[in-house]
Amino acid sequence: MIKAIRGTKDILPSEISRWHYLENIIKQIFSNFNYKEIRTPVFEETTLFGRSIGEETDIVSKEMYTFKDKGDTSITLKPEMTAGVVRAFIEHSLGGQQPLIKLYYISPMFRQERPQAGRLRQFHQFGGEALGSSSPVLDAELIQISYDILKSLGLKDLTVKINSLGVPESREDYKKLLREFLLNKKDKLSEDSRKRFDTNILRIFDSKIESDQELLKGAPLLIDNLDGESENHFEVVKEYLDKISIPFEIDPKLVRGLDYYTKTTFEIISKKVGSQSALVGGGRYDLLAEQLGGKPTPAVGFASGMERILLACESENSFSVKDDNIDVYIVRIDEELEMFVSETASKLRRSGLKADYDYLKRSVKAQMREANKSNAKFVLFIGGEEYKNKMANLKNMETGEQRSVQLDKLDTVLINSLKR
RNA sequence: GUGGGCGUAGCUCAGUUGGUUAGAGCGUCUGGUUGUGGCCCAGAAGGUCAUGGGUUCAAAUCCCAUCGUUCACCCCA
After folding, report:
1. Å from the A311 CA to the B69 C1'
2. Closest nucleotide to A58, Cα to C1'
3. Is A328-419 in CATH node 3.40.190.10?
C-alpha cells in the first residue's frame, strides 16, 4: 500500500469543517484590520532562504526540502513565508505603490524534521506582515491580531511573551558582555551550549538544561542593554498592549532562531499542545528588505502554526462545529423512476438547494437511513399513485410531519419551508 | 541526527503462564411482511495478527532484524 510521506497528513472530510472554521476566523480578523491576502509560490530559489533566514540557522542548514529542477536551478519548498513575501514586495515594488502595506497569508510550509506532536513536514501557517513603517503600534497590532484569532477560537490557556533584541550594533555590544560573563564558566556548559557559545551565544538562554540555566544566573540581560531607540520602541509596544488589554509577559530569554529579527520579538504559547508549545512567533525585521536588495523598509510580522492551534482547540475543547446537513433527500420508491429522481434533484440543486439521493439502487429503508445520516431536513418520496398525478410526499424529518406537494412547485415549497 | 513507546478488522482496543477455528464495541451492508429514518432486535461481510527470519511439537504471544508509527531531545509554528 502506498502511504502518505512521513510527516505529511491527509485532512479528511470529517475534519475539514474545523479547518474551514479556523480559516474563516483568520480571514475575518485580518480583514477587520484591513490586511490583504498574498499568495506566493510554494517553492523559491534556494538562495532566498539562506540570505533571509540565515545560513547558520537550523532551518536553512538542515531542514529544507531542496532539489534541482531540470534547468539545474536549486529550488526549495518554502520553510516559512516571510522571505517569499519580502521577495514579492521587492519584485513588484509594492512599497512604491503605497508607503505601508499590510498583508496576510494562509499556506502550507515544508521542513524536513522528525515529526512529533504539533510538528509535521508539511504543515500550515497563517501569518501577517506589515511592511513600510517602524511604528511600534504595528508590533502591538500584529500581536493583537494573532491573540484575537486564538481568543476567537475559544482558547484560554495562552501566554503572550515579548522581548526586544535591539539593533545589531547594540546586540553585538551585548554579546561581548555575555561572552565575558560566561567565559570562565564555558567548560561547565552543556555540549550544545558550548557550541552555541561560538555560533549564536544568545541561544544559550534557550537551553532546557538546568545546569546551564544555573550558570546563567546573574548574567547580563539583553533587555537591560538596549540602545536608546530600541528601548523607547519597546516601551511604546508595552504601553499600547496595555491599552488594548493584551496580557503579556516580558521574557528576556526569548531569543528567536531566525537571523532577521530586530527589536521586538514575541511568542504566544499554550501548555495544551505537548512540548511544541509555541502557537505564534514573530517580530520586527527592519533590515531584511534591504538585505534582500530592496529599499530599506522597516517591517514586522508573525507566523502561526495551524495544526498546533487545532491541537490546542481540541484539548481545550474550545469550539465545536455543527454537522453538515442537506436540505432534502429524495427517496425513490419505484425503481423505474431512477432517472426522474436524478432530474428532480438536479432542478433543486440549480435552485440553490442542497439535495441528494441514492445512487446504489438501495431499498426504501436503506434510503431513509441514508437520509437520516446526512441530516436531511426534508425527505421527498417519489413514486406510486402520487407520481401519476404529479404529486409527491414531503416529510419533515424533525417533526415527522408529512404532506403532499405538487412536483412543479417543489422548489418554492421547499425554499419557503426551509425559511421557517 | 539521537533516545524511548507502540504495530491484531475501516476505527478504538481485548487476546491469560506460548496450546485447537483470533474476539468485542463502534462503523458498513441486509433484514425485522406491500412505500418511511433515529431507538431496539436478528444476521452478514471484513484479518498475510506490520514484514522477514529464528526458537519450539506448537508463536498474535518469546528472540533478532527491517519497515512503519508515535512521543521526546535538538530546533521551530
Report:
1. 19
2. B75
3. no
pLDDT in tens, A207-229: 777 777 788 888 888 889 899 99
Contact A87, A22 (CB under 8 A): no
Residue ranges of domains in chain A: 13-167+227-316, 328-419
| A13-167+227-316: in CATH 3.30.930.10 | yes
Answer for the pair A357, A332: CB distance below 8 angstroms, yes or no. Answer: yes
CB A330 within 8 A of CB A341: yes
The gap between A358 CA and B32 C1' (Å) is 22
User: According to the model, what pLDDT value does residue A341 have?
Assistant: 94
Query: Distance, angstroms, CA A88 to C1' B73?
Result: 36
Rounded, the Å distance between the CA of A373 and C1' of B21 is 37
| Over residues A13-17, mean pLDDT | 90
Among A335, A285, A321, A291, smallest CA distance to A81 is for A285
Q: Tell me, what's the ipTM? A: 0.89
The pLDDT, as a whole number, for residue A390 is 92
- Give the closest residue to A415 by CA, choosing from A351, A372, A356: A351
Where residue A132 falls among pLDDT bands split at 50, 70, 90?
very high
pLDDT at position A202 is 84
Which positions of chain B lie under 7 Å from any protein Cβ?
1-3, 28-32, 35-38, 68-77
